[in-house]
Amino acid sequence: MKSQQWSSKIGFILAAAGSAIGLGAIWKFPYMAGSNGGSIFLLFFILFTVLIAGPILLAEFVIGRRGKSDAISTYRKLAPSSKWPFVGYLGTAVAIIILSFYSVAGGWILSYLYRSVTGNLTGLSQEEYGGLFETIISNPVEVLVAQGIFMILTILVVQTGIQNGIERASKIMMPALLVMFVILAIRSLTLDGASEGLEYLFIPDWSYMTSETMLLALGQSFFALSVGVSVMVTYASYLKDDENLGRSMGSVAVLNIVISLLAGIVIFPAVFALGFEPGEGPGLVFVVLPAVFNELAFGGLFMFVFLVLLLFATLTSAFSILEIVTASFSKGRPEARKKYAWIAGVLIFIIGLPSALSFGVLTDVTINGMLIFDFADYIANNFGLPLGALLISLFVGFRLKKEDVFGELEKGANGPAKWMHVWYFLIKILAPIAIIAIFLQSLEII
Question: Membrane-crossing residues (predicted)?
């Protein structure tokens, strides 16, 4: 059978951007920034995206297109008779953990979407919006059903392959989401008291300049760009040789930063204008945005459209995460894709059950002082992703031959360019040192 491939350059970029943007930019960035100083977190997030996460994203593109297989097989092919395939195994394991709690948040969106359709999401007070979120996430039946539906939707798209499933969906979802966010940002900025939110987002509070904030911002830059789990290794394996990898990386990174900024501009002016707390946590988007839409004419309709687009963005990220697991399970056998997509999806749903129930029946169960959902998030983003990113940077910097790496970058780029040498320094020297230093500092070892 013919191997999977993207049908167009824009299809790959939008799919990769969809993987990157998702809940990472829209859901997680606002509450992480809100809980960690706003502007300082944003500053480190952009800095780490440009200097570390972006270069590692390009490194994953290089590995993936050169290996042209699933993550595990790619490392085995490029570094035979070595321990490097561990990076593929690590990425697959971390991807399973991420999707296990990510699908729970995806289920929350479905719950809100249902209430939007039935007209139960408008006309509430600000306190009632907060109470609604607590009611939803603590209801065991609702969260499990919603999580299950979300995983089924993800499986149905991934099982159909790259062009017919992931690429086709991303081409529609991502432009529509960007347009909606611009509209929302404009409305949020017109609220009384919005300026205080902009100050929180853009004027630094240096008291938050700590190693913990740096580690969290580093983890967010990895999470937001889907690097460190070899997701982009898998996506890039479907690329044709005429694709300009550097330009693709730049497009994905810029789109991710823009959407994250727009999410902050939508959320924080509304947070302060409507009297919410920026450190609300994972429920920030689900509590604040319905209250914002409630202030709009035709707010119910806008809320419905936004939730549909948010669901789409969440699904595009879920597609990429399930894709790496499915590709690893099916080992390059397209005829086995459907079976392994279902096996992987059901496995991830089962692993995610404790996270789904951690705000309700398992609310008293904590690990290191954190709910199961929060612990899974913390382990994946602050240990799994940085470790995976570190190993990927070392693999490209020290295991692959420099001429082979540059050869991949030159394809579709009309020959060598000076930026390649800057990038190679970042990936070989700066990224490993920065990741290790920030991680050790967070553990108070240095």
Answer: 12-29, 41-63, 84-110, 143-162, 174-194, 214-238, 250-276, 296-319, 340-363, 383-400, 421-440
